[in-house]
C-alpha cells in the first residue's frame, strides 16, 4: 500500500507546480507515515501471530464434557463417544481428584476438577502427576479400558479386540503415548459425574483454546434412587463428599444425595434457561436417559450433530446391538454398557421400589422432576400401572 502511494505522488509531481506539490505532499506524507506505521504494526502482529493463532483457535478440535450423575446411563453415553473413531475419551478423570484428597467436600474440589478437565481437554496429562502414583502407567487411569482410544493405535501398538486383550497389550508405561494419542483426535470427550453446577465451567467456555460442548444427561430420580440402592456400598465415599462430610443418619443419606443431585438440575436449568450468559449459546444440550432408551439412534444422532461428529454405519450397528437384546460380534463386546432391554430397565423402579420410598424421592426432587418432565405418581396403583406414561415433554424438547 505504502509503495503504491509513493508512485502516485511521483507521477503527480511532474504535472503540478512545485509549491502546490509540497503543500499537498506534506499532508500526504503525514498520512503515509501514519499509514506505514499502521502497515508495520499490522505486519509485525501478523508476523508474530502464527503461534498465537494456532493456539488461540482450537484448530477445529472439539471438547465434549459429558456431564451427568451416578446411575444415569452415562456409561452408555460415554461409550457412544468412546467407540467413535474420531473421539479420544476418558471416563471420569475427576475420580482421581475425589479419591486423592482426604475428607474433602465437593465445593472444595470443584476448581481442582475444573482445572483437571481443562488440562486434559488440551491433552496435557502432566496434571495427572498430582493424582497418580509414581511410575504410573496407562492402567493407572480410572477405568482406562473403557476408552477405545487407549486400546488402539497410536496409544497402543495393536487394536485390542476386547478388554482383556487391552489389559495385556496396551498398558504402556507413563502417559506420553496417551498424550500423543490424544493429540491425534478431532474430539476429546470427558465424562464427569462430579460437577453439580455450570458456573465453575465458565472459564472453560470462554477459553479461546477450547471449543467446549456440554452434553448434560439426566434421568428420572426415582430410577436413579433404585439403582443407587442396589449398590449403596460403592457410593459411600462419593456420598460423603457430595454431602460435604456432614453427619447424616444412614437411612437419610440416599435421599440427601438425591436432593443434591436434583438441586443441581434446578440450578443448571436456571442458568441455561432463565439467565444464560452469551458464551453458553449453542454449547449446552440436555438429554434424558428415558428418551435415549426409547429412541437411541435418534437421540445419539442429535448428540453427534451437536458436537460435530458423523454418524457412521458401524456406530449405528453398535448402538442397535447395545440397546436391543443380546448381540455378538462387536469387537468390544466385553465392554459392559447399557442394560439389554433399555426400555424395560428404565421402568424397573415402578415395580421394584416400595411406594413409600417413591414418595420420599418425589418430595426431595419434586421441583426438578416437574422441570425435566417426570410425572409424580400419587398412589401405589398409579406407580404399578405401566400403561401410564410418566414422561412428558418439557421446555428442552
Ligand atoms: C479377546 O480377544 C482375543 C484375541 O482375539 C482372544 O484370543 C480372547 O479369547 C478374547 N477374550 C475374551 C474374554 O473374549
Ligand atoms: C423390552 O421391554 C418392553 C417393556 O417391558 C417390552 O415391551 C419389549 O418387548 C422388550 N423388548 C425386548 C427386545 O425384549
Amino acid at each position: 500500500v505504502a509503495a503504491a502511494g509513493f508512485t502516485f505522488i511521483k507521477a503527480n509531481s511532474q504535472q503540478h507546480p512545485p509549491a502546490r506539490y509540497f503543500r499537498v505532499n506534506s499532508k500526504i506524507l503525514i498520512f503515509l507515515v501514519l499509514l506505514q506505521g499502521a502497515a508495520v504494526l499490522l505486519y509485525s502482529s501478523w508476523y508474530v501471530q502464527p503461534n498465537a493463532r494456532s493456539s488461540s483457535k482450537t484448530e477445529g478440535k472439539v471438547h465434549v464434557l459429558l456431564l451427568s450423575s451416578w446411575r444415569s446411563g452415562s456409561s452408555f453415553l460415554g461409550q457412544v463417544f468412546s467407540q467413535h473413531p474420531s473421539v479420544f475419551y476418558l471416563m471420569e478423570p475427576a475420580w482421581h481428584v475425589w479419591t486423592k484428597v482426604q475428607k474433602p467436600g465437593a465445593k472444595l474440589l470443584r476448581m481442582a476438577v475444573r482445572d483437571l478437565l481443562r488440562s486434559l481437554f488440551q491433552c496435557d496429562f502432566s496434571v495427572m502427576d498430582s493424582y497418580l502414583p509414581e511410575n504410573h502407567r496407562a492402567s493407572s487411569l480410572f477405568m482406562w479400558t473403557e476408552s477405545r482410544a487407549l486400546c488402539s493405535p497410536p496409544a497402543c501398538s495393536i487394536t485390542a479386540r476386547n478388554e482383556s486383550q487391552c489389559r495385556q497389550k496396551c498398558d504402556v508405561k507413563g502417559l506420553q503415548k496417551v498424550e500423543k494419542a490424544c493429540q491425534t483426535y478431532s474430539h476429546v470427550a470427558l465424562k464427569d459425574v462430579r460437577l453439580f453446577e455450570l458456573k465453575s465451567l465458565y472459564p472453560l467456555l470462554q477459553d479461546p483454546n477450547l471449543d467446549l460442548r456440554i452434553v448434560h444427561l439426566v434421568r428420572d430420580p426415582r430410577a436413579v434412587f433404585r439403582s443407587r440402592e442396589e449398590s449403596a456400598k460403592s457410593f459411600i465415599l462419593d456420598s460423603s463428599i457430595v454431602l460435604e462430610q456432614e453427619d447424616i443418619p444412614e437411612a437419610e443419606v440416599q435421599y440427601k444425595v438425591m436432593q443434591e443431585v436434583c438441586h443441581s438440575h434446578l440450578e443448571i436449568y436456571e442458568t441455561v434457561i432463565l439467565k444464560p450468559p452469551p458464551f453458553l449459546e449453542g454449547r449446552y444440550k440436555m438429554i434424558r436417559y428415558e428418551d435415549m432408551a426409547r429412541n437411541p439412534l435418534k437421540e445419539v444422532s442429535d448428540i453427534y450433530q451437536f458436537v460435530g461428529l458423523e454418524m457412521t454405519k458401524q456406530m449405528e450397528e453398535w448402538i442397535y446391538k447395545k440397546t436391543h437384546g443380546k448381540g455378538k460380534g462387536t469387537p468390544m463386546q466385553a465392554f459392559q454398557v447399557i442394560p439389554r432391554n433399555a426400555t424395560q430397565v428404565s421402568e424397573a423402579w415402578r415395580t421394584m421400589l416400595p411406594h413409600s420410598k417413591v414418595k420420599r424421592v418425589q418430595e426431595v426432587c419434586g421441583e426438578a422432576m416437574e422441570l425435566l418432565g417426570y410425572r409424580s405418581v400419587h398412589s401405589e396403583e398409579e406407580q404399578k400401572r405401566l400403561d401410564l406414561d410418566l414422561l412428558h415433554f418439557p421446555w428442552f424438547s
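Residues 1-22, 42-56, 327-336 have pLDDT under 50 and may be disordered. Residues 18-56 form the longest helix (39 residues).
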